[in-house]
Write a structure and sequence with these properties.
The complex is a heterodimer. Chain A is of the alpha+beta class. Chain A has 5 helices and 22 strands. Chain A starts with a strand and ends with a helix. In chain B, the strands form 3 sheets. Chain B has a 7-stranded mixed beta sheet. A 4-stranded antiparallel beta sheet of chain B has the order 1-2-4-3, with helices on one face. Classes of the chains: A alpha+beta, B alpha+beta.
Chain lengths: 336, 229
């Protein structure tokens, strides 16, 4: 194992380095950051047999093109449905491949999804802040944004042929337009009609969408009183409503406190679904009791653990895989 | 008002002690925050103390809103503001040009001289109420009534780190280049972001803060020294 260097030929806005996130510093004004879609990020690392939360690149709709300048390494790509081109050939968006010297990899906007992850068989060199490489996009603290023209160094770069191939996609995430929320904590500031409007409106994601949050478009929500509530803590998933009645869902790099009332909070499972939608796509909020939200979180944790365990099993090297195929072919009596 | 425990999604409770900001309410929040941190109720991940409430986050795989609320109610019954003194912190500030961006405007708005504004600012007893907005923005309560000014109508962009600014009853030392509608009266060489994972920020919520006046020469010396480190 040695180093591999990747030249960044193109990086769109909001392509950043992310690890699992900087938990536990909310009291100092620091959001956790980390991946927008935690499931896809975890899948990319698991597919390489990496330890959880290893630093990966989060690719935005802006896309990323890199070229391997020296060395070689295996990479895993997961999240959304992006267009991947490796050494001139198109491949599926959820895949493990080996990038060799002189080869290019491009990850670009595809048919669906807003964020994809590139995990490395090796350690990508990234700046830490408070012990983590997760990029806090508004300050640039942590690993930082990837810039066109920069070079990425991956130490201990490894080729893991036994892991190459497609990554099974998660099938336990809810589809459709529904995003589940627990109402509150400041729903009491809204008129009864506004609560009904919130539950019955199909909201569109606007293009005012970044790692801090996404502003929605739809019927306005009337507030009950003039707004001068003391600043209160915000979490990832808070649905904050500004003075003009427009809801914004706060995401990975959110402000930690704010004086706008939060009508509802998206449950942690469904944040992974919401973030993969794009501006123009619709969502509708479904209010559930907090007890149900906890049950969903527990089922989700189990589903994720089973899924990652499955994804992390190596497929075997080429020889082993051919042998398996021969055995299967032999068993069912196929003859070619 | 009776303490309210409100569920936040699947993973937190917002514990609200009062509707309005008051010194005794904040002292109770600081005491409650410390009690939760010391007791470490099962599954609790972090606590965020704010102006009238605290956010308590937990791991929903380990516990739930009902169990956390029960643990917090027990702690709340026994937590009372401590008689012992809060930690004291000193922040140095230079009120001279070119750092006095809004000092004249504040003096004019308050019908005071520049020196009187500076004196009122230095004489204040400040307390760290909460961190918020962005990393290291510590909201200090305790600005003297004679120099309280409202926020500007529009935010000014690219205000650098280290600015000492006031709005209403609060004072803040910026840690990052950010837009702000607060009035800037000076510049501080004191670091609030310490970049140490074990002690990332200078203040804890509840700390008492005093400002110490320094000259432009001293500021420049300290600034140069702290950036050589």
């Amino acid at each position: 194992m040695s180093d591999a260097t990747l030249a960044v030929h193109f990086a769109g806005a909001l392509v950043t380095l992310q690890d699992g996130g900087r938990l536990g510093h909310l009291r100092y004004g620091v959001a956790a950051s980390g991946p927008m879609d935690r499931v896809a990020f975890a899948a990319a690392n698991a597919a390489l047999g990496n330890v959880a939360n290893k630093t990966a690149i989060e690719v935005s709709l802006g896309g990323l093109i890199v070229e391997c300048k020296s060395g070689a390494l295996t990479l895993a790509i997961a999240g959304g449905d992006f267009m991947i081109e490796h050494a001139g050939a198109k491949t599926n968006g959820w895949t493990v491949l080996t990038l060799r010297e002189g080869e290019r990899l491009s990850v670009r906007v595809g048919s669906a999804g807003s964020w994809a992850y590139i995990a490395f068989a090796g350690d990508v060199v990234a700046k830490e802040w408070l012990g983590q490489t997760a990029t806090h996009s508004t300050t640039g603290f942590g690993g930082g944004a990837i810039q066109t023209g920069q070079q990425l160094v991956v130490e201990h770069a490894d080729i893991r042929e036994d892991r190459e191939g497609l990554i099974e996609q998660p099938d336990f995430l809810p589809g459709g337009v529904r995003i589940r929320v627990v109402m509150g904590p400041q729903d009491m500031w809204f008129r009864t009609e506004a609560i009904a409007v919130f539950k019955n409106t199909r909201y569109k994601l606007t293009n005012n969408y970044d790692r801090m949050g996404v502003r929605l478009e739809g019927e306005h929500l009337a507030l009950d009183a003039a707004l001068s509530i003391p600043s209160e803590p915000i979490v990832r998933g808070s649905v904050q409503v500004t003075g003009e009645g427009v809801p914004t869902v706060l995401l990975a790099d959110h402000h930690t406190t704010g004086g706008y009332p939060k009508i509802a909070t998206v449950i942690s499972t469904d944040i992974n679904v919401l973030v993969q939608k794009r501006s123009g796509q619709e969502i509708s909020f479904e209010a559930i009791p907090s007890e149900v939200a906890v049950k969903i979180a527990r089922q989700f944790a189990q589903d994720v653990a089973c899924y990652l365990a499955k994804v992390s099993i190596p497929r075997g090297n080429l020889q082993q895989r051919l042998m398996q195929q021969n055995l299967i072919s032999g068993a069912v009596g196929l003859d070619d | 008002m009776e303490t309210q425990y409100t569920p936040v999604a699947d993973h937190a409770l917002l514990v609200t002690l009062a509707e309005d900001i008051r010194d005794d309410v904040h002292a109770a929040i600081v005491a409650f925050d410390q009690a939760i941190i010391q007791a470490k109720p099962l599954g609790v991940i972090e606590v965020v103390p704010a102006l009238v409430n605290l956010l308590v986050s937990f791991d929903p795989v380990v516990t739930d809103h009902i169990q956390v609320e029960a643990a917090l109610r027990t702690l709340h019954a026994s937590a009372s503001p401590k008689a012992e003194q809060a930690t004291k912190r000193t922040v140095q500030v230079c009120y001279e040009k070119p750092f006095d961006l809004d000092l004249d405007a504040v003096a004019k708005a308050c019908n005071l001289s520049r020196d009187a504004v500076i004196k009122a600012h230095l004489d204040g007893d400040y307390k760290v109420l909460m961190y918020g907005f962005v990393p290291g923005y510590a909201y200090l309560g305790g600005v003297d009534a004679s120099i309280q000014v409202p926020r500007k109508l529009a935010a000014v962009r690219d205000i650098p780190a280290g600015c000492v600014m006031v709005a209403g009853t609060q004072c803040l030392v910026t840690t990052l280049k950010m837009p702000t509608g607060w009035s800037i009266i000076g510049r501080s060489p004191t670091h609030i972001l310490l970049n140490d994972p074990l002690r990332p920020f200078l203040f804890d919520v509840g700390d008492e803060v005093t400002f110490q006046r320094i000259s432009l020469d001293t500021y420049n010396e300290l600034y140069a020294a702290s950036n050589r480190e």
